[in-house]
Amino acid sequence: MKNDVRVTIPALDPSAAKAPARRRSARLLTLIRALLDDARPRAFTSGEARRVVLLIGLCAFLAKLLISMRTYGTQDIHTWAGFAQGVSQRGPVGIYGINFGRLNGTVYNHPPLVGYYLEVVNKLSQWGVPLRVTIRALASAADVISSLLVFEILRRRSSLLRSSISGLAVAASPVLFLISGYHGNTDPLFVMLVILGSFLIIDTRMAFAGGVALGLAIGVKLVPIVVLPTIAVYLVKHRRDLLVRAAAGFGTVFAVTWVPAILGEWDGLKRNVLGYSGINDRPWGLVGFADDLGWSWASQFMIGPGKYLVLLLCALIPATLAWRRPKLIMESVAMSMVAFLILSPAFGVQYLAWPVALAYLLDFWSATLYNVIGGFFLYQVYDHWNGDLPWFQMAKGQPLTTDQVALAAFLWAVLIAILIRGAHRAISNGNDLDVDTTA
After folding, report:
1. Could you count the other beta carbons within 10 Å of the beta carbon of residue 415?
2. How far apart are the first and last CA of the chain?
3. Rounded distance, CA 56 to CA 63, Å?
4. pTM for this entry
5. Is there a domain that residue 318 lies in?
6. What is the mean pLDDT of residues 55-84?
7. Total domain count for the chain?
């Protein structure tokens, strides 16, 4: 009897049979997702956003440079030409001993660094670059740097979207376009140095370089003195390791630029720079309202001893905020500059450049409103000074028209809105992101 042969046939596993099909389906889904991801708009990186801000800033710079080559600018250019001649005759310190009363009825009211700045301008003039081009080209270059600084500061504190559009708004600012490209003054230059110095000290810990930048800023105009208490308080309270280096950088610039003028031309420096109260036409802010109401006593107080009260308020209140809320130090610096223009008893249309970049650290929408309306206001003013387009001749300053005064009052109100909205937003919410000082 033969042995039975039993053959065991394995049972079929239905799930095993379906495994290859599942793997094929998974690969297909992965491929579809990859195709869809490639089809979607890719988000910008911070490096790409930075390059876009730089590109727009450089395009604006070239446009401003073209304007500076094709137009004369305002009578400030004529005044600068007189100052440059004074520097060529008496030097950057001796210029304080010159009486410029017959030059547009003005005085040499600039801090000592400007004398050395004019020596550079004179040298470039000898090489064939007109003064009217140099002054406006340097201010326009400062705007490019300011736009990048606004981007970098906000990138550390907010979203990439907000930092990018804010940087672009500064790069393409109509206010800065007209002041830097057409008017001809140093206001955009010192604003850039204030932002640069604050950024270097606070965000990158390059305290010595930041101190140098702040020292240069007050060497261009005295206005930045309003931000120094805020930065000093922040360093004393929260970053004493940076205090000595920042003070050393600031002190080095002060010693090189201010000390020779203090020792050699103290009377002229004290009278024309430290004692300067602005021009007599003051259609701006509280002084303008007081004059309209016939309160001459109030306007005289604000022009006289009241200006020191304004300085204290704009310096000490933001400094107090920086003491209590160190994360808001950059916002505190911005508040100082915005508040100072709001309360300033003096006014020139070029002063509108002071808060343009820094306002974006406080509130985007109100800053943009100021930017747009301010550009329209400046166009109206310069067009009035020129007697309509084209603006080829020297624009001589004239009193503002009734409509321009009303527009200036609206701009003043927008600045107040920037200050209030920015302070409320910063104090209530703080920064959206922690500040990365190692970035």
Report:
1. 24
2. 90
3. 11
4. 0.87
5. yes
6. 95
7. 1
